[in-house]
Amino acid sequence: MVLSRLICAFLLVACCCCRRAAGVPGEAEQPEPELVEVEVGSTALLKCGFSHSQGNFSHIDWFSVHKEKPALIFRVRQGQGQSEPGEYQHRLSLQDKGTTLALTHVTPHDERIFLCRDKRPRSQEHRIQLRVYKAPEEPSIQLNTLGISVSSREPEEVATCVGRNGYPIPQVIWYKNRQPLKEENRIHIQSSQIVESSGLYTLRSVLKAQLLKEDKDAQFYCELNYRLPSGNHMKESREVTVPVFYPAEKVWLEVEPVGILKEGDRVEIRCLADGNPPPHFSVSKQNLSTMVVEEEKTTDDNGILVLEAVQKKHSGLYQCHGLDLETLVSLQSDPQELLVNYVSDVRVSPAAPESQEGSNLTLTCEAESNQVPEFQWLREKTGKVLEKGPVLQLHNLKREAGGSYRCMASVSSVPGLNRTQLVNVTILGPPWMALKERKMWVQENAMLNLSCEASGNPRPTISWNVKGMASEQDQDPQSVLSILNVLVTPELLETGAECMASNSLGKNTTIIFLELDSNRTGLNTSTVNPHARANSTSTEKKLPKPESKGVVIVAVTVCVLVLAVLGALLYFFYKKGKLPCGRSGKQEMERNTSI
């Protein structure tokens, strides 16, 4: 037995030696080829590895080995290179005195073994393994926008990662919240690649997962790992969040704005839930006094109910009700009170106050509010604050005290909450007269418009003491303007015109004096001065014309001149002795007296 084993071993060794001596291809151990790494598009330098003592670089053949079949691509003879026809014909050249073959514009198809062979003085060859690399483009990520339900029993697609034009095929790693994901029951990763015509790879990787409610904010992204001659590298996609659907477990209510509310504010009642998508919402309102549900309203798609201008009727307890349309589970929020502060029904008594001139008047203001209101009185024309408090006392009323007053009710603890009520105070009294002109210059036999305005409460009526065509115009509820069209006659020039305004409390008159103006033409006799006002019935004195003043001055001047001339004549006759009132005359008179 031992002898037979020794014989078999001997025969086996002899057979191996014979095979090696026969030079059977592939059986002899080949040294590892030299590794050369380049990027796509660059130039690969293939250096023939003979030493000068071993090789003859003036006679070398270069081969490209593809699928174990060598193909001659380049010849070197006497230091000169010549490309063989084919795919490398225009991309090869010699460098370094013929020891290096340069391959330009490297593509992924160039990744193979190249060998150089020298048959003189004895056959020897050198093998070179060319490795080609290309960084992929930035990875793009496509999100499943339809979302994933937590009730799904199978992993659903989360996102797809695509890395284009890389070489060799990059490695993809998926991350959730910066933590790498691995294949398991709840996570599946499916990757595939496409070879482009350029020889580059496009990688497509799909991440599928069963998600939980906790994953609603999870950030997913993919990473491509690849190698270049410079080392290992990686590129990351952007982070995405996939919609996660889960039923609501809680519903609550929020009110905007937060804080004190008043009538007129715009209020939003927001219904919120912790489910996705949110349930279908409705809002109910409960009366604070009766605790009876008064109304229920549906919100918009965002769960918001808008009250554009809230009133006191909107106060109450509000609740949100949510119905999950998938599980048909109904939830409701805790009730929340909505309190609308208000001031309303501001009233002034008496509602239509009136009083006679010289008397006193008391106005009282009231209002309804859920707070204690504060009051103040303002004069409507000036906006001046007259009194603070619900009561306004007006003493010794004058005609000017008539008009509008405003009561304002407010709540100081609620800024901007106030309401007002306007009341009109009427002062009773005899008519008040307003003259357009106290005196008018007219022309005889001309038509003239005389105007007379009066006011009072009760509203007065106007009459004239002269005949003419009268018309009235209402100025306001307490004022009237009467216009009388008359012919200027000598009688009218003598008497003037009188208008009389009267009401139940008295009467008042105005006299208009007329003066003849023969020197003036084109006088607009209907013009009335709106600023001339009077409240008197006394007859006015006639005033001289402006021209009469000049006549008086001329007359005085003439008189002075006449007196001066007369004085000069008397003095002249006195010097000539023509006057009997001289000294001799005086003596003669004395004699006669003595006799």
TrEMBL record:
InterPro entries in alphabetical order: CD80_C2-set, Ig-like_dom, Ig-like_dom_sf, Ig-like_fold, Ig_sub, Ig_sub2, Ig_V-set, Surface_Rcpt/Adhesion_Mol
PROSITE patterns: IG_LIKE
Keyword Glycoprotein: yes
Residue ranges of every copy of the Ig-like domain listed in the record: 31-117, 139-241, 243-320, 335-424, 431-510
Membrane-spanning ranges: 551-574
GO MF annotation list: laminin receptor activity
Compositional bias per record (Polar residues), positions renumbered to this chain: 524-538
Main location class: membrane
Keywords attached to this entry: Cell adhesion, Disulfide bond, Glycoprotein, Immunoglobulin domain, Membrane, Phosphoprotein, Repeat, Signal, Transmembrane, Transmembrane helix
Pfam families on file: C2-set_2, Ig_3, V-set
Cell compartment(s), UniProt: Membrane
Entry's Gene Ontology cellular component terms: plasma membrane
UniProt keyword RNA-binding, yes or no: no
Recorded topology in the membrane: Single-pass type I membrane protein
Domain of life: Eukaryota
Region (Disordered): 524-544
UniProt signal peptide: 1-23
Alphabetized PANTHER family for the sequence: CELL SURFACE GLYCOPROTEIN MUC18, CELL SURFACE GLYCOPROTEIN MUC18-RELATED
Function: Plays a role in cell adhesion, and in cohesion of the endothelial monolayer at intercellular junctions in vascular tissue. Its expression may allow melanoma cells to interact with cellular elements of the vascular system, thereby enhancing hematogeneous tumor spread. Could be an adhesion molecule active in neural crest cells during embryonic development. Acts as a surface receptor that triggers tyrosine phosphorylation of FYN and PTK2/FAK1, and a transient increase in the intracellular calcium concentration.
Record protein name field: Cell surface glycoprotein MUC18
Lineage: Eukaryota, Metazoa, Chordata, Craniata, Vertebrata
